[in-house]
Amino acid sequence: METLNQWIENQLQDRNWRPADLARIAGIKDATLSRILNQTRQAGPEVCRAIAKALDADEEDVFRRAGLLSPLPPAVAEEREAMRILRQLPPEFRAVAINLLRALQPNAAVLHPPLGRSLAEAAATYQATQPGSLDQEINALLIDYPELKNIIEEARIQLSEQALYALILNIQTFTSSRERQQFSQLHHRLSHLLTELAS
Fold first, then answer.
1. Would you write out the chain's pLDDT as a tens digit for each of its 199 residues?
2. Which of 36, 46, 52, 135 could disulfide-link to 62, CB 3.0 to 4.6 Å?
3. Cα separation, 141 vs 148, whole angstroms
4. Three-class secondary structure of residue 148 per DSSP
5. Which residues neighbour 94 within 8 Å (Cβ) at sequence distance 6 or greater?
6. Residue 30: what pLDDT?
7. Which stretches of the chain are DSSP H helices?
8. Is the Cα torsion angle 28, 48, 8, 87 positive or negative in sign?
9. What is the CATH class of 4-65?
């Protein structure tokens, strides 16, 4: 990945801009941008946000180039299909899919809060429960939604108990605010997603 100064220089060249043009559009001092380009100053969060906005770039990408965020892990073969699936989902299903992916991360507890209940919350709740309570939660869910039996059984095999608990909590959150017809669609999506995650 290009460093921030290299990336900015390429962006300026592509746009036929001078550094002063970017500084003016981003609302930062010429001297600040000059020091960033000369690598005598590291760009802070506010400057990165301003540069990203001025160049219509992804803010997270600019933060990574500036060294404010860790580099992304290497690309994996499933990325394209995951992106295709996510782009086809309606917003509420995307939220559930992202929650599931976040819950599966080994360091989920220290990452930014997800859209729904995180693995950290699930783990805290899980640790505070009595033995057998996870089975009780699953049984109660299956009484109302028996069509979930197969996906939950597969999740038992593929996920840790804490990740499984996070999955159950997210499903409960979704079912409490959606109609059954929509939930049947979610069940199909979850089945497909779990298959992809387990492959």
1. 789 999 999 999 999 999 999 999 999 999 999 999 999 999 999 999 999 999 999 998 999 999 888 887 888 888 888 889 889 887 767 777 777 776 666 554 433 444 344 444 555 555 555 456 677 778 877 887 777 787 777 777 776 666 677 667 666 665 555 445 555 555 555 655 555 544 4
2. 52
3. 8
4. helix
5. 86
6. 95
7. 4-15, 19-26, 30-37, 45-54, 59-65, 79-88, 91-104, 119-128, 133-144, 149-158, 161-175, 180-198
8. negative
9. mainly alpha
In whole angstroms, give the CA distance from residue 163 to residue 155.
9
Amino acid at 19: P
Residues 6 or more apart in contact with residue 166 via CB below 8 angstroms: 99, 103, 117, 118, 119, 121, 122, 123
Half-sphere exposure of 85 (CA within 13 A, CB side): 22
Alpha helices in 38-130 (DSSP H): 45-54, 59-65, 79-88, 91-104, 119-128
Q: What is the CA radius of gyration of the chain?
A: 22
**What three-state secondary structure class fits 42?**
coil
| Residue 70 three-state SS | coil
Domain edges within the chain: 4-65, 79-198
Provide the pLDDT for residue 96: 72
CB 141 within 8 A of CB 156: no
User: What per-residue confidence (pLDDT) applies to 148?
Assistant: 75
- The rounded distance, in Å, linking the Cα atoms of 161 and 56 is 42
Amino acid letter, residue 18: R
